[in-house]
Amino acid sequence: MTITSFDLSSARRAAAQDRTAEWVGQFLATEGGNELLAAALAQDPHWWAGPVWLPLEALERLAGPEDEDVLCVIDPEEWEDDVAAMEEELEAGWEPPPLLAQHEPDGRLLLQDGNHRFEALSRDGADGAWVLVYFDSPEARDAFVESAVPCSAPRSDLGGNDMGADGTWNITMDSPMGAQQATLTLVTDGGSLSGKLAGPQGEMAFEGGTVDGDNLAWTISIEQPMPMQIETTATVDGDSLTGESKLGAFGTAKLTGTRA
After folding, report:
1. H-helix or E-strand containing 178?
2. Is residue 21 located within the same domain as residue 115?
3. Per-residue pLDDT tens for 199-211?
4. Rounded mean pLDDT, 225-240
């Protein structure tokens, strides 16, 4: 996957295709200007969450001027010039790429990339930011996703379209076999919809869905417990999702969800 732009939308598309590691590597090696971190991350496997909207106060900035308690000291004049330039871009409508944070076993989130963006957002009055978080194990990632309580993203930052369907949803499908829990990731690109569904039967990606205002439609092909195409229509209302899925010969199932 060759990426030509590095923004929130492209990060979401990469996440929907399980290619966040590729997105991060290419971003750091090019526009991000952090080749050392790109090389370090490539040495070992990591598990990713996001982009997820997190409070700035939940992140620990590691770089900054020498008069601050930081790990990586940056020349004060260089720091101020870079942050001031980003502030101007934010005021002009710039959407910064997601920040990159490392999850520590004690729960801390260390800001490995995006320290300048973090500071510019903070000075601009932002309460939170879109973040890609990486973990050393899938168990740590899953526990974080289940327990994290991100702050609400401003509507202008939800991307894709006004309804903000993009992101991760915790959904429940009332199927003939009982209530089924799953995680749904949605990525919009104009009137197109793609994403993935992760549940008891594994993880299934889909493309070719549609977006029409608040209305979504997509189809997922499954093989277990039997081959079937699940045709779903849903409506997003803020942080809620409702709809129904056609389950072939098994009829229809109601679908409800909340934004993760």
Report:
1. strand 178-189
2. yes
3. 877 788 899 999 8
4. 85
Q: Which domain holds residue 215?
A: 167-259
Is there a single domain that holds both residue 133 and residue 37?
A: yes
What would the pLDDT profile of 25-77 be if each residue is shown by its tens digit?
999 988 888 888 889 888 999 999 988 889 999 999 887 776 677 777 788 88
**The overall pTM is greater than 0.70:** no
- 142 in the same domain as 33: yes
**Is there a domain that residue 43 lies in?**
yes
Contacts for 4 with CB less than 8 Å, ≥ 6 apart: none
Domain end point (choices 157, 178, 211): 157
Contact 244, 230 (CB under 8 A): no
> Is the domain of 133 the same as that of 210?
no
* Domain shared by 62 and 99, yes or no: yes
Give the number of other Cβ atoms within 10 Å of residue 157's Cβ.
14
- For 25, the 3-state DSSP assignment is helix
Collect contacts of 86-94 with beta carbons under 8 A, ≥24 apart: 86/116, 86/117, 86/119, 86/120, 87/120, 87/123, 87/124, 89/120, 90/120, 90/121, 90/124, 91/124
Which DSSP helix (H) or strand (E) runs through 70? none
